[in-house]
Amino acid sequence: MQDDITLWLQEVKRGEARSQQELWNAYFQKLVSLARAKLRSAKKRDYDEEDIALSAFNSFFRAVDDQRLPKLDDRHDLWKVLVTITVRKILDQRKRDFALKRGEGQVRGESVFQQPGLDEALGMAQVLGAEPTPELAATVTEEFNELMQQLPDQTYRRIAQLKMEGYTNLEISRQLGCVERTVERKLKLIRNVWDS
Asked: Which of 5, 22, 125, 178 could be 182's S-S partner, Cβ–Cβ 3.0 to 4.6 Å?
C-alpha cells in the first residue's frame, strides 16, 4: 500500500492542484526550518527563510511540470530534491549578496540608524520623520518666495504656481483665459529667469 506522499507525488505529476497543496502543507514548514538553519549567518534584509522556501517550492513544481525530475517516486526522493533546490536557492542568494555591484556583502540595512531605547520597527522613519523639520520648511519657503519675486508680474507667478501644483499647460491656459501657446511662452521665460 502506498503512503500519502507517494500518492500525492503521482497526482502532482499528473497536474492535480489538490495534491500540490497537500505536499505544500506537509513540507513547507520543514523547508522553512531548513532554510532558517542555513541562513543563520546571512543578512536577511531582502529575503528570509520563507522567501527561500516559497521559491524552492515554485521551482520544484515547475520542474515537475516540465518533467525534469525523472527520479521522483517517494518521500525520500522528494525530500532530497526539495533540500537540493533549497540549498541552491540559498547559495544563489548569497552569490547575489556578495556580488561587486551589490557592495560585496558590505551594504548595511536600516539597523545602522537604530538608536538605543527606540522601537526597532521604526527603521528609517526614526531618522527621516514624517514631517520636514521647521528649519527645512523655512528654508524652502524662503527660497520659493525669492524665486517668485524674480518673475516680472503676478501672471507669471500664477503660472509658475499652477505648474508646480501639477496642472498641464492646457489647464493653466483655461484658468487664465488665454491660449496654451501663451502659457508655453511664459513658462519658457520663467525657466530662463530661474536658470540665470
From this structure: 178
